[in-house]
Amino acid sequence: xxxxxxxxxxxxxxxxxAAARATLERRIDRRVRMRGLxxxxxxxTCECRYCGIRSSVPVARFTLSENExxxxxxxxxDAGFGSMTLQSGERRDSVFVEFVERCLRxxxxxxxxxxxxxxxxxxxxxxxxxxDTYARWLDAGAHRYLLRVETSDADLFARLHPRHQRFxxxxxxxxTLKALGYQLGTGVMIGLPGQTEEQLARDxxxxxxINADMIGMGPYLEAPGCPADLRPDRGVSERLLLSLRMIAxxxxxxxxxxxxxxxALQAISPTGREAGLAAGANVLMPIVxxxxxxxxxxxxxxxxxxxxxxxxxxxxxxARAMRAGRPVLWNAWGDxxxxxxxxx
Length: 344
Ligand code: SAH
Prior knowledge:
Largest sheet: 10 strands, parallel
Number of helices: 13
Number of domains: 1
Bound molecules: S-adenosyl-L-homocysteine
Helix content: 40-55%
Strand content: 5-15%
Structural class: alpha/beta
CATH class: Alpha Beta
Number of strands: 10
CATH superfamily: Aldolase class I
Shape: globular
Distance between the termini: 34 Å
Order of helices and strands: HHEHEHEHEHHEEHEHEHHEHHE
């Protein structure tokens, strides 16, 4: 795996990406799954040092209303996406927990169609919560949860987060989610300062050991107000290539999981997401956040699509898949085969 990540394996990157595509076709299929990504609030109690919406950053804070969230869900359904991801900063207060629960129940109720008899598939991406909260949201209809481990290296994790955000608690949250019956998503940032190919290879082993069903990862990008010790130490093209190699190595190693080609790839290259698909990814996440709030949800500088609106992203993202020669799976949840046996 280290040779793959360094680009020194025989045949180089072309052979690596071709092998990843062959694995995808053999273990799943070539169709790209769409998940509308709704960034519904940037309120956050965490202080992840790399993140542009960490609590100490003086950005205008917003939370969408329940009706705005349900309308975005309906827009995803009408676009034929079949699934959506609800992402926000991290809050654990009861007002937030109940709010998310109410939104989930309404989305499930209000997005049913003959093709989606159980409504949209919903992925939550709202951070570390108690087991009770996770169970409540599962009961309310979320069936997937995305919580990136960020890095599986405890020392690197400690450099990225304040002391009270503990690595062991992050890992425990992941095992709790899996045990509760969620389809589990995790992932890492690629090209963090000081991060080695050996650490990235161990990240892939971590994904396997935690039994992840879905992987979301992308290049590390500098956030506004980035602390000096977190300035990237690899150039952007190196981070892009390393990210594509990570996608390919993860595809080959894990086989039947869903892997996202993330927005961050497009921050580095205008066709970064297409390149992610060509390296073995099979999920795209068109942003459906209302345009007036996009500029307040910049996890990193140079985030693409900030000046665009939902209608544009809903049309543009599937077109990217098709331009990359890949069919789209419409009007279906598009669960990973790895997750079969979970709720349908
Ligand atoms: N609060 C949620 C959502 C976090 S944002 C949670 O904790 O899960 C989603 C992801 O964006 C993070 O998991 C992180 O991997 C990524 N991210 C944040 N800042 C970033 C940066 N500067 N560069 C690249 N990715 C970043």
